[in-house]
Amino acid sequence: MDTALRNTRHNGCMQTAFVGSIAKHPILSTYLKIVMQHVHDSYYEGFNLFATGPCALGLAVKQEAKQHHDSAARYNQTASLGEYYCDSKKTACHFYWKGEKIVLHKCEGCGISQDWEMGNNYYILFQERNFYCEDSAAIFTA
Description:
By secondary structure, the chain is α+β, with helices and mostly antiparallel strands.
C-alpha cells in the first residue's frame, strides 16, 4: 500500500515506483487494462494518481480480489515489500531490498516532490486537464 499521502491511504492506492511480477499475473493484466482505458477516455476523475499510477494499481488489486471473492488485504500480504528511504536533505531517495540499495526513485537531486526543473509535474498537468497527449486515443485506432 502507498501510505505516504492521506488520499492514497484512504483510496487503497499501491506504490508503482518499482514493481516486479511473475509473467501474466492477473493483477498486472487488470492494471494495464485500467490504464489503457483511462488513456483512451482521457480519464480525469479523482486526482492524478488515479489516472495511471498508484490508485489505478490499487483498483486493479480490489477488482481481482472481488472477482476471486477475496480481500484486497490478503493480496497485499502476499507482496514482497522492500524499504524506501531518502537522504537527510531529501535530494536522493532509493528503494532497498534486504538492506541493499536497488532502485533510484525519480532522479538525483529532484527530491521527493514533483517540482524539479527538468521534469513534468503530473499533479499540475492533471489539474489543468493536460495530462494526456492530445491524440492519445489515436493509439487505439491503428
